[in-house]
Amino acid sequence: MSQLPRISREVRLATVPAGLPRAEDFTVVEVPLPVPGDGEVLVRNRFFLVFAALRTLLGGGVKGTPFPPILPGDTLFGAAIGEVVTAPDGSGLRPGDLVSHRLGWREYAVLAAADCTPLGDALPDPVAHLAQGRTAYGALTRGAKVGPGDTVFVSGGAGSVGSLAGRIAKLLGAERVIGSTGSPEKAKRMVAELGYDAAIVRGAGPLTEQLAVAAPDGIDVLFDNVAGEDLRAAVAAARTGARFVLVGALSGQLAKDGSGNAAPVELDAYQLILKQITMRGYSAMGDPEVQPEWIDRFGGWLRSGAIDFPYVRVEGIAQAPQALHEMMTGRHLGTVVVAL
């Protein structure tokens, strides 16, 4: 412990954002290096995830979600990859081991050994454990049961989840995959880099009309990470018996106005009935069996070159607040990761 720094830095909420979070809504503070108690592990974080769901937590949260709201003065949290510094006897952990946990947004973290998951060598690159493909894989295999011949529409296809969902759908046998995004530049990259056959752009004309052109025979599956106009367009394009699986609500989380904790959308119930559309929500956190299956398949796909992990690397904890703002305002394609 004598070789460790005396302080650690962490990102705290300074004020509740008015609209989308800005860098000045946060502060990077120095705190004494945390000291582990009995049964606790000290971890030096190497990477942590920047993710859109923080907007909901900063806005007061949503009843029923597994995480508490983040209040002014609180340290942010989220998925992280760290290196064990010290670990208690009998924990199965040793200094130098890489683990995943949920106390990101700080340089050092203290947590119970049970809250650390050793990474092993299942994935060729440790940072790939921050990929949000588990949600996409679980929703497409369990919620929508994508199979050969399906036409799949992925809303929010350029974000951390959507950037993997299109490629996963293809690997599961989908014949055609269409994604949506808010940027013409991202739409081009989605087709060139992410395996999409076509991409439609919010703000470039009615999505219903764009989707009708991209999928003239309709869609069999909706992987919905947005809600809003994207969900309405999917209802209009749905074939009889279409399967919709809802995993996110970016239309609310990334709305410039509001708190980010609601995503209302008006749908034509007649169309849901007449087309016999099935619609369900999916959360990978409520499906513990999906994680080992996803890691096994993801590792194989990465090693074979069938898929990659598109992410933007931001260097240093001081840049994390700005990285959050840039992610929420649509600057980046794929997952945003802060490296420490």
UniProtKB/TrEMBL annotation:
<dbReference type="InterPro" id="IPR013149">
    <property type="entry name" value="ADH-like_C"/>
</dbReference>
<dbReference type="InterPro" id="IPR041694">
    <property type="entry name" value="ADH_N_2"/>
</dbReference>
<protein>
    <submittedName>
        <fullName>NADP-dependent oxidoreductase</fullName>
    </submittedName>
</protein>
<dbReference type="InterPro" id="IPR020843">
    <property type="entry name" value="ER"/>
</dbReference>
<feature type="domain" description="Enoyl reductase (ER)">
    <location>
        <begin position="19"/>
        <end position="338"/>
    </location>
</feature>
<dbReference type="InterPro" id="IPR011032">
    <property type="entry name" value="GroES-like_sf"/>
</dbReference>
<dbReference type="Pfam" id="PF00107">
    <property type="entry name" value="ADH_zinc_N"/>
</dbReference>
<dbReference type="InterPro" id="IPR045010">
    <property type="entry name" value="MDR_fam"/>
</dbReference>
<dbReference type="Pfam" id="PF16884">
    <property type="entry name" value="ADH_N_2"/>
</dbReference>
<dbReference type="InterPro" id="IPR036291">
    <property type="entry name" value="NAD(P)-bd_dom_sf"/>
</dbReference>
<keyword id="KW-0560">Oxidoreductase</keyword>
